[in-house]
Amino acid sequence: MKDSDFRDLYPFASHTIEIDGHRYHYLDEGSGPVILMLHGNPTWSFYYRDLVCGLRSDFRVIVPDHMGCGLSDKPQDYPYRLETHIGNVRTLLERLDVTRMSLAVHDWGGPIGLGYAVQNAERIDRILLFNTTTFMTRHYPFRILACRLPIVGNLAVRGCNLFAVGAVYLACKNRRKMTPAVKAAYLKPYDSYANRIANLRFVQDIPLTRRHPTWTLGAAMQEQMSRLTRVPMLICWGMLDFCFTEYFLDRIRQQFPQAIVHMFSNAGHYVVEDAIDEILPLARTFMSDKAGGGD
């Protein structure tokens, strides 16, 4: 990816660390209390660009690209599992000597970030939650589950790029925000069959049965979520999400009764893209509020 392709929209210095011989890319902007932002699939740190710009004057904002995503390496023979992604986040925080932080998580960033958080609850100041899941379920749309099929999934996700391309059309409901330049930036890291490896592996890592390698970890995390019920939480939810529907929001509200909830009726799965003008002041107030939380 050439800098000229996206730097006007993504005006940040790039940083990398090496993990198991692979480059792991991240942003590290501003100073102050740390906010760790974790993206999902098929986005990358670009998804949080406006939130980073709006918060870095008062916070240190760290945003990694998961291995296989964004500006991180895309190894073909790699354990793209939830456990590995959590471990990479842990390694990054250790290398940066970060011991306390708030989280902002979306999509797969939810299981990854909260997977770290349940193991380190004493280090988490507050959580900003965007459309994601925090529990085990089979309640996903057919278009997602179909991507797991051995031949169909590989052809659709890696061969035809339908997953990433479909997302820029279906996940963002505010078409004024999804300009040609923004669309191109979302898709640029996934511009070849090889570079779409993680897009497919993330979908394949959804644990639907007890035989799945990630089932045990996912079930343990679900049981441990109660460790986070004392952590102040703000939920910003796009109500037009075709994947994480109101069913997910209702379940999460039951898990986290302390959460402050804002629902955006005209926003989809890419809620930060759709509703950044409303989300940014909410996030700034929430992250700055020393009292925190809500009843």
What do these coordinates show?
α1 (49-55) runs parallel beside α11 and α2 packs across α3. The protein has an 8-stranded mixed sheet, with helices on both faces. α3 (109-119) links the parallel β5 (101-105) and β6. The protein has helices at residues 49-55, 82-95, 109-119, 142-145, 150-159, 162-170, 180-187, 197-204, 215-224, 246-255, 271-288, and strands at residues 15-19, 22-29, 34-38, 60-64, 101-105, 124-129, 233-238, 260-264. It has one domain (3-288): 3-Layer(aba) Sandwich (Rossmann fold). With 295 residues, it is an alpha/beta fold. The protein contains 11 helices and 8 strands.
Q: Summed up, what is this model?
A:
The protein has helices at 49-55, 82-95, 109-119, 142-145, 150-159, 162-170, 180-187, 197-204, 215-224, 246-255, 271-288, and strands at residues 15-19, 22-29, 34-38, 60-64, 101-105, 124-129, 233-238, 260-264.
Task: Give me some keywords for this one.
eight-stranded mixed β-sheet, alpha/beta, 15% strand, Rossmann fold, 295 residues, globular
**CATH-derived architecture:** 3-Layer(aba) Sandwich
Order of strands side by side in the largest beta sheet? 1-2-4-3-5-6-7-8
Percent range for β-strand residues: 15-25%
Task: Return the average pLDDT rounded to an integer.
Answer: 95
List unreliable stretches of 5+ residues: 291-295
| Number of continuous helical runs | 11
Rg of Cα set: 18 Å
Instruction: Find the CATH topology.
Output: Rossmann fold
Give the biggest sheet.
8 strands, mixed
What is the terminal-to-terminal distance? 46 Å
Helix content: 25-40%
CATH class: Alpha Beta
Structural class: alpha/beta
